[in-house]
Amino acid sequence: MAALIGTACSAQDPPAAAPGPDPVDTTAAAVRTTSAPRHEFDRTAHSTTDPASMWVIVNKSHPIHPLDYEPAITLVRGYQVATPAAGPLTALLAASDRQGLGLKIASAFRSFGYQEGVYGDLVAADGREEADRVSARPGYSEHQTGLAVDLVTPASPACDFEACFASTPGGRWLAHDAWRFGFVLRYGPGTAAVTGYSPEPWHLRYVGRALAAELRRTHTTTLEEFFGVAGGDYRS
Ligand SMILES: [Zn+2]
Hints:
The chain is an alpha+beta fold. Helices cover 31% and strands 10% of the residues. The chain has a single domain (46-227), classed as Muramoyl-pentapeptide Carboxypeptidase, domain 2. The protein contains eight helices and six strands; from the N terminus they run αββαβααβαβαβαα. The strands form two sheets. It has a four-stranded antiparallel beta sheet, with helices on one face. A two-stranded antiparallel sheet has the order 1-2. The longest helix is centred in the middle third of the chain and has 16 residues, at 83-98. The chain starts with 27 loop residues before the first helix and ends in a 9-residue tail after the last helix. Zinc ion is lined by residues 107, 143, 148, 150, 203.
């Protein structure tokens, strides 16, 4: 089961196959022309449809298949996380502790049955439209992969699950540094039409260090755009 996890190792393509610049030729232009063909990122290295793949895309157009999928779980600070993400998340939280940020997990793996209960209660109370606004339908939540976690910062409890989380020191640190641990902020500013979700600066998604670094390098803010996969709202 662990065999599909390439994680960070696959990130290290050999350096430039292209002839290196002369050691004295370090102008910006020279760097640009020699860095372009340096490496091709292999977008097919991992599946985007297998729920056990760290590159899986789950959104309102792409439910988890099978719908009742459950990942192999490892506990991180008492929360259930898909095993491949556990080590990197532990490292991220330890780094946040060292920075004095003390970020904490508020939610991690959520099963199909759990989401079914949450969503069903919301529909019963407020109707489907309102339920869709605040909750993923069962089978459509990235949390069911175990690769997504929601973090909160004890310094600003009022910003738990709120837009203002982005401006807390912890939120800013995540936006800047989460990629170093292989995580991305899945629902960034200005991406709702693509991802189907309003910005959630507290929602981290593990994709592995190689992809996180490539997204950053190419200034790509969504998995949908990077892999050319449809997103947006539910089809019905
Ligand atoms: Zn979340």
